[in-house]
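lol ok so funny story. i was supposed to be doing the assay writeup but got distracted and ended up predicting the structure for this chain instead. priorities right. anyway since i did it might as well share w the group, maybe its usefull for someone
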Amino acid sequence: MHVGKGFHKSGGKGGSKITEPAAVRILLITVALAFLALFLLLPLAAVFVQAFEKGWEAYLAALHEPDTLSAIRLTLLTAAICVPLNLFFGIVAAWGIAKFTFPGKSLLITLIDLPFSVSPVVSGLIYVLIFGLQGWLGPWLQGHDIKIIFAVPGIVLATVFVTFPFVARELIPLMESQGRDEEEAALTLGASGLQTFFRVTFPNIKWGVLYGVILCNARAMGEFGAVSVVSGHVRGSTNTIPLQVEILYNEYSYAAAFAVASLLALLALVTLALKTLAEWKIQQGLSASEER
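and the output, tada:
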């Protein structure tokens, strides 16, 4: 076998392989680390440096502002509503798509991916068009004293839209790779559908479920574009944490803005750690399945 100049051929039990020279590998790794440091680690460090610039007392005081506490509560409430809804939808959609064949299956997969291709701002405008005062349902909602836009329901709807693919898109390939043999065996032995799911299917996908929930929760708590359109920016009422950061920054309250932003940065770090754990567990589960 001819090996191009500048590459090395190394043999082993698994067969021959071509690797780049050490200098090339070092250069590529250095560029990657420099890129991560410049665009990820440096901004992340800057957030915490600015947040604690005036000390712990100023940091805690910024977090205990009434408007900030209201934003934190609304963000947690939104995530607490959206994540279970998307968890239920994701499991049902993934089970249906991975285990059954039916007309419109490709269309359903396309619709699940829709929020990935639509700008969050556009999705927020769609809800304004439907539920806003001048929207399609606006007069009817106003006549029945139902407020969706510029209120909590609108924030929840917009957040559900931008986050609902995460659980489903994580579980679909995982459940497809596991096949249907174990479920069919359980059904043959007399197990009901729910027994099959909770005793056979769920143990095999539990880490994938956690992975999807982690990503869904992080996006729900950090969403800005769609929520900004439908919230109305009412301080102490419809501002989430990202919107509160924007308001504080625009008011030149930089220390307070970075203090609140540090909550999202901490969420990102926790999400990264849990995501890594879930990926490792998923990989272990796939390896165990292949061995069986």
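The chain has 13 helices and two strands. The radius of gyration is 24 Å.
back to the writeup now i swear
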